[in-house]
Write a structure and sequence with these properties.
Strand content of chain B: 35-45%
Largest sheet of chain A: 8 strands, mixed, barrel
CATH architecture of one domain in chain A: Alpha-Beta Barrel
Number of helices of chain A: 25
CATH class of the largest domain in chain B: Mainly Beta
CATH class of one domain in chain A: Alpha Beta
Oligomer: heterodimer
Distance between the termini of chain A: 107 Å
Helix content of chain A: 40-55%
Number of strands of chain B: 16
Radius of gyration of chain B: 19 Å
Largest interface: A-B, 13 and 17 residues
CATH architecture of the largest domain in chain B: Sandwich
CATH superfamily of one domain in chain A: EAL domain
Largest sheet of chain B: 5 strands, mixed
Chain lengths: 777, 220
């Protein structure tokens, strides 16, 4: 209902109704007065017409009489030959079809008179009865001028014009012509005016009807009218022409008011029908106008809808040069602008702004396409290492340049259909599996492409990358999952400092489990799911177990025992490492006191993470716990990994110094894997180095390891530090270490980490712990 | 033809002879009802005692001059001949339609037409069928004794035979009770004079001019 077409149509309808109503109102309100005006006008016109016609007849007669009076022929025979005169008079009479012609001589005698008598169809000319008798109106002849009169003869009334016949100035007689005032005249008036016309003569007191146009004589009515009355239901017009002293001649014209009004009423009907017809036509016209106006708009709307639905290829037809045509053109311009913007937006959405390589969106699309075509392909997930260092040291712009350079090179690597840039330093390369290309050659190609270092000013920057690979559909036929697999593989390389890793299911379990563990670990500390296991450290000189390393275990409600290398990183990542360390330390202190009550005095080592060192409250907690438990600090050892110290040596040294001051025994854990310099080592306020198991495990077979361990022991000793070796798995190593002056040893060969109950049994079995030789034995 | 000519000559001789024998002047003065002298009034005397009077044979000429009859009023004895003389350069159609002396003829420019008056004394009204305004009279009388008053209203009739006469005054525009005014007079041997006054005023004498003022008439 609210469409433009309806609005326009409605507007037109209202407009037309208003206009027509005004018109109709005007017409109707004017109707009554117009009727009266019409009637008055009609009557006035009738009166004028009557006068004009009456006078013109008279003037015509006069003019003709004057002409005839000058006729020499008439003059010649005027007093002579009566018959000749009559013939001449009749000739004249015929010229104007006069009803009466007469001559009067200078004696006042009617010398000639002819009458036209109309009896039914027959028309005859007869001699007048007044011939040779004196003229009835001698006074008319007094003046020798043409004159018009009403003349009564044989009961008929004539308009008569007399004209003197003159010789020189002398009047020798008169000639006169007359028209009868009869029903013919009355009917003629009626024909012209539409009013019934009656001629009346009043001689004495009696009105007599001379002639009438009406078929049925209405004498009383006409008499009323001629007396000046206006009978009801009639419109009347009367005129009196007084001719004689004692006679009145008048004309009465009348019509039934109803007849006239009926004629007018017919006109009203015509007007009403005309108005109705106009209204209908106008409305139809309005409808078509509205439709024709809105038709192009509808077309436009329809086409714009098509465009709006995203079909930018649909050009709007340019129907004409009107405003709508211009609008259509503008739509097309807008459409192409939108299209170009959308294209650029799509490009932006699908490409990395830095390298202009297709991004993850495109990757997903492409993967879906490849998966659909059921081709075999491989995903190479690339990650550039050490880019953070470049960003930090040389600035992000240099980092960006390296990424751009890398992207440029990767694109050129043969064997890969597409290169996608996922952002930062991550790229995905897709390789459709081809008989001629194996994985090795492809990774070699990547390596080759990135081999040349990037030169920035004086720096040669290496572009090292790790690669995680997943195959389709070998590993998975779900591309989303496949990407995760490549990512998992990549993660694995990162964690294990590898350059390349093809996905295997083994990698996967870790990851899934890890997610679950991360979630569950929140409850581990408070839910008393943690427990401490202890691994003995054997004093190689005395052969007695003097130290224990407390190792935390998580007894997961569903997974069972979770090894520390799985949940410690989680604790670190989720910020719960402090709480964990607190718990461990407290538990260790409690255990020390328990053992002490049983008469066992063992130094317990607790592992401290880098985060612990950074926690400002850590030192206070440890010292408070120690004090409240009333345990001397030298009964506890704090093991810090080499890498933890390396991250922030200054702070670490400060904290460690405080612990040392307090009396703690400090040990560097995993020594040999953390890239610490000797200078750092020199500064560290520690008592002990703990050589990483990787150097120890294969000590028997590996000479290099032997050299490393030997020189490390020597180094430590030279710096005043004692040495602990872990990972002792056989007797040879144990003896070797003892021979080379290593103070303590720890490993499966001595004892695996055990829960306190089992360890207590073990301790009792090893009663005495005389020395390792006993063990051996 | 010949005997007629002799007779005429004879009559002329007798007239001269008789006048020398007897002559009495009858002086008539015609005055209007206001006493003013009236000119061009016809005065004639009819013998009442069979006095033998010689025929008047004066040549009477009526000219058509400037589209008018000149003179307006002429007098002639019955039986005499009138010479119509067209002095204009256009044609006239002279007619008389009343009384016994009816005639009509066309008279070309510069031509003359003789018209004999029938032996009937009467006033003859003349008109021109071409020029309606032209109006002229001549009076045919049964006596040689006739004349018109001069500008002083005087007329003289030379009467050669004594006796009783009927003296008549006539003018077409006179509006007396009768057509003319008559007086009975007895003429002796002596001159006598008589004054006649009209009892009514005269009607207007037509000026015989075209009231329409056709200016083309001068050139056709």
């Amino acid at each position: 209902m609210k469409s433009l077409q309806n609005k326009i149509f409605l507007f037109f309808v209202l407009l037309l109704l208003v206009v027509q109503s005004i018109g109709l109102w005007t017409v109707l309100s004017g109707k009554q007065s117009q009727e009266e005006q019409e009637i008055a006008h009609r009557l006035a016109t009738a009166k004028t017409i009557f006068s004009e016609l009456y006078d013109s007849r008279r003037d015509y007669l006069t003019a003709f009489a004057r002409t005839a009076a000058k006729d020499y022929g008439i003059k010649q025979i005027f007093n002579e030959d009566s018959r000749s005169l009559l013939v001449a008079l009749n000739n004249h009479r015929k010229r104007i079809d006069a009803d009466l012609v007469m001559t009067i001589n200078d004696q006042g005698i009617v010398s000639g008179q002819l009458l036209l008598q109309r009896d039914q169809a027959e028309v005859k000319v007869r001699r007048g009865a007044e011939m040779d008798s004196a003229f009835k109106h001698p006074n008319w002849l007094q003046k020798a001028q043409s004159q018009a009169h009403l003349y009564q003869l044989n009961g008929a009334l004539y308009q008569l014009s007399l004209s003197p016949i003159k010789v020189g100035v002398k009047t020798i007689g008169w000639v006169g012509f007359g028209f009868q005032i009869d029903s013919r005249l009355a009917k003629r008036y009626k024909m012209i005016t539409g009013l019934e016309t009656s001629f009346m003569l009043n001689q004495g007191q009696q009105w007599k009807m001379i002639a009438s146009s009406a078929e049925q004589q209405q004498l009383s009515l006409v008499e009323q009218i001629i007396k000046g009355e206006s009978p009801e239901q009639y419109i009347v017009q009367s005129q009196l022409i007084t001719e004689f002293n004692n006679a009145q001649f008048g004309v009465a014209m009348y019509a039934l008011r109803a007849d006239l009004v009926e004629v007018l009423q017919g006109r009203w009907w015509q007007i009403l029908i005309l108005i109705a017809l106009t209204l209908v036509l106008s409305l139809a016209g309005a409808y078509f106008i509205a439709a024709s106006i809105t038709k192009p708009i509808k077309l436009l709307v329809q086409q714009v809808k098509t465009v709006a639905s995203g079909d930018y290829n649909q050009q709007i037809k340019q129907f004409d040069e009107s405003e709508l045509g211009q609008l259509a053109r503008e739509f097309n311009v807008m459409q192409s602008a939108v299209l170009s913007r959308e294209q650029s937006m799509v490009h932006l959405a699908n490409h990395d702004p830095l390298t202009d390589l297709p991004n993850r969106n495109m990757l997903m699309t492409e993967l879906a396409r490849l998966a659909h075509s059921t081709a075999k392909f491989s995903i190479y997930h690339l990650n550039f290492s050490r880019l953070t260092e470049v960003n930090d040291t040389l600035g992000h712009d240099v980092g960006d340049k390296i990424i751009i350079e890398a992207a440029t090179r990767l694109v050129k690597v043969p064997g890969f259909a597409n290169v996608f840039h996922l952002g930062a330093d991550e790229f995905i390369l897709l390789s459709e599996v081809h008989p001629d290309l194996n994985q090795q050659s492809l990774t070699d190609a990547i390596e080759t492409a990135l081999e040349t270092s990037y030169e920035h000013r004086d720096f040669s920057l290496q572009m090292q990358c790790r690669i995680g690979i997943a195959n389709y559909p070998g590993h998975c036929d779900n591309v989303q999952r496949l990407l995760q697999m490549a990512d998992t593989a990549l993660h694995h390389t990162r964690r294990n400092r590898l350059q390349l890793q093809v996905y295997t299911a083994d990698l996967e379990t870790n990851t899934v489990e890890r997610l679950s563990l991360m979630n569950d670990f929140k409850n581990a500390v408070s839910g008393e799911q943690l427990e401490l296991h202890y691994q003995p450290k054997l004093d190689l000189r005395s052969g007695i177990v003097t130290h224990m390393e407390a190792l935390v275990r998580w007894r997961h409600p569903t997974f069972g025992l979770v090894p520390p290398d799985k949940f410690i990183p989680i604790a670190e990542q989720t910020g719960q490492i402090n709480a964990l360390t607190h718990w461990v330390f407290k538990a260790a202190v409690d255990q020390y006191r328990l053992w002490l009550q049983q008469g066992i005095d063992l130094n317990i080592a607790v592992n401290i993470s880098a985060q612990d060192l950074r926690n400002p409250e850590f030192f206070d907690y440890i010292s408070d716990t120690l004090k409240s438990a009333n345990v001397p600090a030298n009964k506890l050892t704090l093991e810090v990994t080499e890498s933890a110290v390396v991250e922030d040596p200054k702070a670490a040294i400060a904290v460690l110094q405080k612990f040392k001051d307090l009396g703690f025994c400090l040990s560097i854990d995993d020594y040999g894997t953390g890239y610490s310099s000797l200078a750092q080592l020199k500064q560290l306020p520690v008592h002990e180095l703990k050589i990483d198991r990787s150097f120890v495990q294969k000590l028997e077979s590996d000479n290099d390891d032997q050299i490393i361990v030997r020189s490390t022991i020597e180094l430590a000793h030279n710096m005043g530090l004692t040495v602990v070796a872990e990972g002792i798995e056989d007797e040879f190593v144990l003896n070797w270490l003892a021979e080379h002056g290593c103070e303590k040893a720890q490993g499966y060969f001595i004892s695996r980490p055990q829960p306190i109950a089992e360890l207590n049994k073990w301790l009792q079995q090893q009663k005495g712990f005389s020395n390792f030789k006993q063990l051996r034995g | 033809m010949f005997p007629k000519l002799i007779t005429k000559l004879l009559m002329v001789c007798i007239g001269i002879g008789s006048s020398s024998v007897y002559a009495a002047d009858l002086r008539v003065k015609v005055l209007s009802n206001t006493g003013a002298p009236l000119a061009d009034m016809v005065v004639y005397a009819l013998p009442l005692e069979q006095q033998q009077l010689p025929k008047n044979t004066d040549k009477l000429v009526i000219e058509q001059k400037n589209k008018a009859f000149a003179p307006y009023i002429s007098v002639a004895q019955t039986g005499n001949v009138i010479l119509f003389s067209n002095q204009d350069d256009i044609t006239h159609h002279i007619y008389s339609v009343l009384g016994k002396n009816k005639f009509d003829f066309v008279i070309r420019a510069g031509k003359q037409v003789r018209q004999k008056i029938v032996p009937s004394a009467e006033e003859i009204l003349m008109g021109c069928n071409i020029h309606d305004w032209m109006s002229g009279y001549y009076l045919a009388v049964d006596t040689p004794l006739f004349t018109k008053t001069d500008s002083a209203g005087s007329a003289v009739l030379k009467i050669t035979q004594p006796g009783k006469y009927s003296l008549l005054v006539w003018h077409p525009q006179m509006q007396e009770q009768t057509d003319n005014i008559s007086r009975e007079v007895t003429v002796t041997g002596d001159d006598s004079s008589l004054s006649i006054q009209l009892s009514n005023g005269m009607a207007e004498i037509p000026d015989q001019e075209n009231s329409d003022g056709f200016d083309y008439l001068s050139t056709y």
